[in-house]
Amino acid sequence: MTDVTDAAAPDRGHGTARTSAAADDTDAQVGAGAPERVGVLGGGRMGAGIAHAFVLAGSQVVVVERDEAAADAARERVAASLATSVERGWAEPLDELEGRLSVAVDVAAFGGCGLVVEAVPEDEGLKADALARVEAVLDDRAALASNTSSISIDRLAHGLARPERFLGLHFFNPVPASALVEIVLGDATEPRLANDARAWVEAIGKAPVTVHDAPGFASSRLGVALGLEAIRMVEEGVASPGDIDTAMKLGYKHPVGPLRTTDIVGLDVRLGIAEQLHRELGPRFEPPALLRQMVAEGRLGKKSGRGFYDWTAE
User: Fold this and answer.
1) Alpha carbon distance 77, 106 (integer Å)
2) Which residues, at least 6 apart from 250, have a Cβ–Cβ distance to it below 8 Å?
3) Measuring CA to CA, which of 3, 5, 7, 91 is 20 to 30 A from 147?
């Protein structure tokens, strides 16, 4: 599971809005089942996973990245994930799945999408800018979503012309293996869009939970609270990371303990979310000194090879 994406920021160019006739076509895509055409802004771990999910659900998917090299890397990530699905028994041939995927370096490629999911790094300014640029090329009835794990949907909506067509779709890493998507509703989100979002999540084989905009939503707020306390326990010498995780797995039936989860998420990611929640909710989310130290040392968890566990042999 993860709380944010490491996707790269996209190209800064603007496209042009489509005609009202095209808007009718887009509106027809938005409803039960996955939209016919889906865009993903950012092709890092999370963006690639989101693209993979919608390709498997039958959507035509376009991933937009910041430059050609990043776009090629995004294509390789999604293709590798699709190949794994085929190896595990997915019915459609790999070439048919890959035929539903395209990559681009300009947000104008999102024209005609029924849904675009923003999956750029967890920085409010970056996300707000990216969302405004994407909205400028979408039809009036297209849906726009952020994969943010902790940034206020209402704040992100402030810069949008159509906040009623905006919401949060918080995916978890690794997306192909995760069963959950958190749907986050802003004050302006249309009830119809909330219903459509539940149908889209179910269409990609995942379970939706719906929450209203609040700091950390539901999953990040609870998950980070548990993770930070587990880190404090290591810091204080209460128990080893392995024993803390085993206690939560065997005693509380958690499939993965809070420290191993933190390694999978990324310690830098957890730190960023904790700092955001600390600003908004107060001292109970103050990051432990050990977390700051490990991030400063580059011990970021699975992606760097070491965190609370050694991942180099896995």
Assistant:
1) 19
2) none
3) 91
Helix runs in the chain, H state only: 20-29, 45-56, 68-87, 94-98, 124-135, 153-157, 191-203, 219-235, 241-252, 258-265, 267-281, 289-296
Helix, strand or coil, per DSSP, at residue 70: helix
60 with 26: CB under 8 angstroms? no
Strand partners, 244: none
Lowest mean pLDDT among 180-194, 206-220, 285-299: 206-220
Tell me, what amino acid is at 163? Answer: P
Whether the CA torsion 274, 7, 94, 59 is positive or negative: it is positive
Per-residue model confidence (pLDDT) at position 303: 92
d(CA 59, CA 117): 13
Q: Is it true that the peptide bond before 283 is cis, omega within 30 degrees of 0?
A: no
Dist. CA 284–CA 162, nearest whole Å: 35
**For residue 101, what is the enclosing H or E element?**
strand 101-104
CB 196 within 8 A of CB 128: no
Per-residue b/e over 269-289, b at no fewer than 16 CB within 10 Å?
Answer: bbbbbbebbbeeeeeebebbe
pLDDT tens readout for residues 220-263? 788 899 999 999 999 999 999 999 999 999 999 998 999 999 99
pLDDT score recorded for residue 220: 77
